[in-house]
Amino acid sequence: MHEEFWVDLLRVHCYPSRDELGASCAKFAAEQIRAILAEKEEANLIFASSPSQMDVLNALRREDVDWSRVNAFHMDEYIGIAPDHKASFVGYLRDNFFQYLPLKNTFYMNGLAEDIEAECERYSALLREHPIDLTFAGIGENGHMAFNDPYLADFFDPKLVKPNLSLDEECRMQQVHDKWFSCEAEVPQGAITLTMPTLLRAPVLIVISPSETKSAIVQKCLEGPVGLAVPATAMRLHKNAQLFLDTAAAALLNR
To answer: 3-state class of 35 per DSSP?
Structure first.
């Protein structure tokens, strides 16, 4: 049975299975995109690159959306990783989602750029030219969004895009758990990331966090204090944020 409840300003949706979560979230997201396109010529969307997003993204491909009027951004990329590397976030979204849609524009970060600060500014300029309407986000096992790890996140960051040159151990081990790398030593030390204000500035925020591996951090996000120790708690203060869980991810909640 589908369950809904509120935590501060955040509306939480919980489904018995990932398939049901994916179908319902995709339907909701498509409605939001169509509403944006009814008011504007183009919609500007940010996508997260993670297997946790794919139930929704696969279902979203089947929804009635005029993708030819959509500009797509992604939220992070490893420094020093080529798009054809199996762990590349660019490659993951391109191969599993973007290539199937007739998008107007797809804007990619370049993790191989010689000047990373200049690459951050290039991507920032694109974001300024295309104000974001909707962000699809996930929650990292350490509570990050994109690569805004607890020690780096800033809810009032003046930057749109910045490098994180020292990914923390829990963040890097998540990439090993997801089988993108065989050990922590293989995981790059740094990444380019959209900042927290960039992710949260979108009028619509859709956060997708299924599976039992996220149950502990989901509990912290919903039952702990809002703060930088768990950056994703900021979603609780967004005026139009929706969190989609399955029962496995919600298993530790005391409600």
So the answer is: helix
In which element (H, E) is residue 76 found?
strand 76-78
Please tell me the distance from the alpha carbon of residue 23 to that of residue 217, in angstroms, as a whole number: 24
pLDDT digits (tens, 9 = 90+) for 71-113: 999 999 999 999 999 889 999 999 999 999 999 999 999 999 9
At residue 193 the predicted structure's pLDDT band, cuts being 50, 70 and 90, is: very high
Predicted confidence (pLDDT) per residue in 12-30, tens digit: 999 999 999 999 999 999 9
**DSSP output for 171-204:** HHHHHHHTTSSSSGGGS-S-EEEE-HHHHHTSSE
What is the Cα–Cα distance from 155 to 24, expressed in whole angstroms?
Answer: 30
247, two tokens = 């029962």
DSSP reduced 3-state for 116: helix
Q: What is the DSSP letter of 101?
A: S
> Is 139 within 8 Å of 232 (Cβ atoms)?
yes
Q: Which residues contact 84 (CB under 8 A, 6 or more apart)?
A: 91
Report the distance separating Cα 59 and Cα 140, nearest Å.
Answer: 22
Inform me whether the pLDDT recorded for 177 exceeds 90. no
**Nearest of 164, 158, 132, 127 to residue 145 by alpha carbon:** 164
Q: Please tell me the pTM assigned to this model.
A: 0.95
Residue with tokens 């995981």: 187
Element housing 207 (H / E): strand 204-208
- Contact between residue 96 and residue 59 where contact means Cβ atoms under 8 Å apart: no
